[in-house]
Design goal:
heterotrimer; A: mainly beta; 7-stranded antiparallel beta sheet; two-stranded antiparallel sheet; 11 strands
Amino acid sequence: GITEAQAHVIVNNALKLYSQDKTGMVDFALESGGGSILSTRCSETYETKTALLSLFGVPLWYFSQSPRVVIQPDIYPGNCWAFKGSQGYLVVRLSMKIYPTTFTMEHIPKTLSPTGNISSAPRDFAVYGLETEYQEEGQPLGRFTYDQDGDSLQMFHTLERPDRAFQIVELRVLSNWGHPEYTCLYRFRVHGEPIQ
Amino acid sequence: GITEAQAHVIVNNALKLYSQDKTGMVDFALESGGGSILSTRCSETYETKTALLSLFGVPLWYFSQSPRVVIQPDIYPGNCWAFKGSQGYLVVRLSMKIYPTTFTMEHIPKTLSPTGNISSAPRDFAVYGLETEYQEEGQPLGRFTYDQDGDSLQMFHTLERPDRAFQIVELRVLSNWGHPEYTCLYRFRVHGEPIQ
Amino acid sequence: PLSGVPCCSHARLARTPYLVLSYVNGLPPI
C-alpha cells in the first residue's frame, strides 16, 4: 500500500512528464523549435477536394493539410498529412545537427477514429540520415514498425548511436495498415544528442 | 495506506485541475477571453529573419512571433515573444477590471529546450497597475523572480490585495537568465478578483 | 518506386499550394 502523499507524488510526476510534450525529450523536428520540411520526394499529397473554404458564399479553394503538420503538435483527428498510397517520403531538416537516437511516431487512437480503425496509419517505416537534402540514399538509422494495436504514441530507438551527426533526416514509410488510398502521418519526432 | 478508490479520486482531481488551464483560475490576460496587448513600450521584437514563408517557391516574408503569443496558451518551444536584450515591457489590457492578486509566468522546461538551457527565460520582473495605457509609472503590484530551476509554471502572489482595481497592467522584465541577445516570454497570466 | 530512389523533381514543395516555412538563419528564438 502507498500513502496519500506518495500517491500525490506519483500523479504529479506523471502530469509533469505529460506536460513536457509527453516525452520529456527535445523534439529536434518540431517546426516551432526550428525544424522544417524540406521535401516529400516522390510522395504526393492526397488531394480529396472535400474541405471547401468559402467567403461571402463564394467558394475559394479546397483545403488539405500540408506536410508541415507532421512536425506540428496538434494531433486531433484529421490534422495529419495524407499521401497517396502506402509508400511515402518526408525529408525533415532538424533544428540542429544531432546524433539521432530515438524517433517517435504518433497516430490518433482507434477510440477517436470515426471509422473505428486506423488503417491509414503507417506500418513499416525506415529513417535515414542525410548529408544534404538531395542525397538519394542516406545512412540507415533504423527500420521500425508502428503497431496499430499499441499506444497512440510509440518510440523507437536506434540500435546504436550513429557515428555521424545529421541535421537532415528522411522518413520513408514503406507500408500502412490497410487503407487502399492513402496513409496519414500525424506527428513524427526526432530525438538525439546535439553535437558539442 | 490509501485504497484504490482514493487513488482514483486523487488522479481524477489532478487531471481535472490540469484540464482547467493547469491552475483552475481565471486568466484575465488571456487573449481569447478578452485580454489584449496594448503596447510593448521601449522593447523591440527581436527580429532574426530566420523563418521564411514562401508560396510556389516565391519568398513572401519573414515570420516572427508577435507579443500576442504571451497571452495565448500555446507554449511549445519557439512560441514565445522575443524582445532584444534582457529588459522588456508589455502593457496588457485585461478582459475586465480586477484587483490583481496573482501572476503566473511560464517558460518551456529545460528538458524541451534544444539548447539544453533556458537562458532566454525572464528572471526578475515587476508588475504595475495602470490607470491608462500611457501612464508611465503605475502602481507597483510586486516584484518577483522566475526561478530557472523551478517548475515550468510559477505563480506569484501580491503581498497584499491592491486598494485599487485595474484593467491595464504592465509587465516589466528586468533581467533574464543569461541569454546575451534576447529574452523570450512564453505566457504571462493575471489572476484576481473582479470588481463588484 | 519500390527501390526508394527519388524519381521526381526535388522542387516538388515549391509547386504546392500551401505556405512553405524554411529556417534560413539559425534557430528561431526559443
